[in-house]
Amino acid sequence: MSSTNKANLEKLKGYGATVRPTREIGGHVAEFKRGDVTTAIEFGLEDETRADLAILGMGTKPDNKRSLGYGSLALWRLLTWARGEGLKDIRARQVQLRHPGAASGAEDFWRKNNFRRRAKPNSTNDYQFIRPRKRT
């Protein structure tokens, strides 16, 4: 099954997302709402680097709700959907936040969510998702 199949995006709605296309060809935004908080994740399927799923950016609104776990929860939902769809090569570029100490905060976010910096990062995939091993 191609990861660009629209049926895949319909299933993402089952994880609490509303999905809409972006201006970028093949790009999408999934918005996850929890109360008055919205986390939006922009992503592409089968990008130019051949990643099955490339996370292009994300953000949480309102600003005073950042760093409270909403982004991690939304990302977990997106990754759970991706796993169910057989998407294995998942990459992300570093999200730059607009406050002091942002670079380390962004890196910490990706690391705690099982992404690791690639040896040869580029503008579309600084980080790659490392699937956690099952505990036995």
Keywords:
136 residues; alpha+beta; seven-stranded mixed sheet; 3 helices; 7 strands; 24% helix; disordered N terminus
Characterization of this structure:
- The chain is α+β, with helices and mostly antiparallel strands.
- The termini are far apart.
- The longest helix is centred in the middle third of the chain and has 15 residues, at 70-84.
- It has a 7-stranded mixed β-sheet with strand order 1-2-3-4-5-7-6.
- The protein has helices spanning 6-12, 70-84, 102-112; strands at residues 17-21, 27-34, 37-45, 53-61, 90-92, 115-117, 127-129.
- The chain contains 3 helices and 7 strands.
Helical fraction equals 10-25%
Radius of gyration: 14 Å
DSSP summary, beta strand count: 7
Shape verdict: globular
Summary, kept brief:
By secondary structure, this protein is an alpha+beta fold.
List the helices and strands and how they pair.
Layout (H helix, E strand, L loop, with lengths): L5 H7 L4 E5 L5 E8 L2 E9 L7 E9 L8 H15 L5 E3 L9 H11 L2 E3 L9 E3 L7
